[in-house]
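To close the section, here is one more complete example, presented without commentary so you can practise reading it yourself. The ligand is WTA.
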Amino acid sequence: MSSLENLSYEERTFAPSPEFAAQANAQASIYADAEKDRLGFWEKQAAYLHWDKKWDTVLEWNSPYAKWFVGAKLNASYNALDRHVLEGRGERVAFYFEGEPGDSRAITYAQMLTDVKKAANALLELGVKSGDRVAIYMPMIPEAAVAMLACARIGALHSVIFGGFSADSLITRIEDADATLVITSDGGFRKGAPFALKPIVDEALAAKKTNVKNVLVVKRTGQETAFDPEIDIWWHEILERQSDIHEAEFFDSEHPLFILYTSGTTGKPKGIFHTTGGYLTQASYTHRVVFDLKPETDVYWCTADVGWITGHSYVVYGPLINGATQVMYEGTPDTPTKGRIFELVEKYKVSILYTAPTLIRTWMKWGDEFPQGSDLSSLRLLGSVGEPINPEAWMWYREVIGGNRCPIVDTWWQTETGAIMISPLPGVTATKPGSAMGALPGIVAKVVDDEAKVVGKGGGGYLVLTQPWPSMLRGIWGSDERYRETYWSRFDGKYFAGDGAKLDEDGAIWLLGRVDDVMLVSGHNISTTEVESSLVSHPNVAEAAVVGAKDDTTGQGIVAFVILRGGIPSVGGEELIKELKAHVAKGIGAIARPKQILVVNELPKTRSGKIMRRLLRDVAENRAVGDSTTLADPNVMKLIQTGLATGKSED
Ligand code: WTA
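Output:
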């Protein structure tokens, strides 16, 4: 849990300015509207979309299974693109794309639509049908969004796999979803150099027999790449010969839209799947009210990669449905200088910026001279997502980036919730630094204790959602039991988010981080088991226990305790630790590389053999070790600490 656990009471509140409130999309009455008639409220939000056929029933709820807008038909790509073009907004810029090397493109809604139609025709030529799964493994380039929308257009499910994942992670996800096509690129640009993606796809597909028939390859870097003419197809070649005519087919509101994998408490990632009508309704509604989007005048920039849910809901679906003009940036925030993001804010006159606490803390560390080197006066609203934002980072964001003028929306949600659930509404909510404040209109969130009893003001416990919401996950791909077990069994009939939470004396919600074995590293979910399995797959490792330890920049850092086969080496230990870190990075992806690996002789286990990670976290965070009386061998912690005092390693 985060440092907010020890929260006393936050006195600072920031009321909306009268100027902001006067022009805001959301008015205070919206809460009462939703409360009076929750389903009617969601119908009003759904009415912002284009439906080919209206619903018969708003919600069918057979706990834990929801169907929203039952009987209705719509198309996601039609809502994101065709509609704007048909209504005369085709010349509006959808994306200002900025490549890391400095290349840039302005892509209009009309151009996006043409590209998506051609891509949809290409998918059809390759035999992709409605209901098929397509894996997308791409850098942050516009073609990633085109590929997603082309899938949605023909009713195929996309499964986007973050471009930083390894061949192993890629193949696990391709197999689990039984994808028949992979869309990738030769590579992308990061930290001033090209990196390759296509060879990782080749490595993944060589490792296992799958049903993948083709690999579509976008040319981004121009790197040499192996090409098998039986399987591999250049994206530009196949698109070139496609017609730019494609009528979107309208699908059932509950037609699956996508699968997105997220880490669970066991090693195997969970394929969270979302359907169409409810998801699009909530993604666009939240994008409109939380970010106060004025599509004609705002320039909106969400820095998330499309490999994560934030990129799905707040780069692709929400903003495009709302007709936003966005910035999309391929690279890292420090290339070529630590002022890159701020230079882009100035260049494109970004007015709404949505990013993660880990980046905000990194900026703080780099120093105020970088943001001060650019004109940030175009900004009018700031957002945060991914993990609890500590009050110091919130204040810095407000003062240094927002010039004390921009409201901050700290948005709590998950891959599973599909869209924002808890957040202030700009122009309405007075905010407190570090609090996501309250559930959005239409959403019901509670904090409960161990016995599922709702806590009062000042109380703490677990965050639960007590009413179904439109963009909720419809399940875990291929594992109904895991769906029920993970989310619905802890507190009968209530959705268990896996986050600790507290209500302050005013009833504001403070999120406290994960209560399960999922770590949040730079806002990315990584399971302790996943990293442990990777470590144990190394021939020198006998056993491993992994914890997320507090880290000032990344929120949590991965600290691993390993028992080596054949004992602790007297020489060459440093080399081995480096090798183990590289082994995990290769196995899962660079985001899972442990910050610190500590070699120990024993691990603290209960009599039933469960590793007590809580005690290891105490060690990793340099605290006095808590109650260890339930250990099978109470001396173990002493041994670990004495051993470590003599041989710590960190880089
Ligand atoms: C955490 C990302 C506190 C939380 C959208 C959640 C947050 C997990 C916040 C989901 C926030 C996300 N304040 N914690 N504003 N936003 N989290 O699935 O622990 O990648 O359960 O979705 O991130 O991460 P996911």
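Once you have examined the tokens, check your reading against these statements. DSSP finds 20 helices and 30 strands in the chain. The mean pLDDT is 94.
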